[in-house]
Design a protein that fits this description.
Layout (H helix, E strand, L loop, with lengths): L2 H9 L10 H14 L5 E7 L2 E7 L2 E6 L4 H12 L6 E6 L8 E2 L2 E7 L9
Parallel strand pairs: 3-4, 4-6
Antiparallel strand pairs: 1-2, 2-3, 5-6
């Protein structure tokens, strides 16, 4: 199983509560990655002014409770410009529509509230 597939499967086990804050989401994601045996760095520095929530090898993971699409696009564009990131997974509390590729690199999205089987 590819590393992206393993990370996506791990993220699909995260079940945030409706009152979960962003730091709680970070904790839940870290637990899911650890349980799946996926090594990562939390708050990884990519380049000056760019720090991503998680970096698992060259796979970036950005966690958002909520943010406007334009804000997320600008932020993830900086991450994808880094040679340290081969692709990006955006895990959000609520879904966000992102392109499948940005800056020539794959982008995956996971809506964490859908892991309950419904969108909250």
């Amino acid at each position: 199983m590819g590393e992206v597939t393993r990370i996506l499967a791990a993220l699909k086990t995260v079940r945030p509560s409706p009152t979960c804050e962003e730091y709680d989401l970070h904790h839940l994601v870290a637990q899911a990655l650890e349980k799946a045996g996926i090594p990562f760095t939390h708050e990884a520095h990519l380049e000056k002014g760019a720090r991503i929530d998680f970096l698992a090898g060259t796979i970036g993971i950005e966690v958002k409770k909520r943010a406007a699409r334009a804000t997320i696009m600008k932020q993830i564009g900086r991450y994808l410009d880094s040679a340290s990131v081969s692709c990006l997974i955006v895990a959000t509390r609520h879904g966000v529509d992102l392109p499948a590729k940005l800056h020539g690199k794959p982008v995956y999205t996971v809506c964490l509230s859908r892991n309950w089987g419904i969108a909250i």
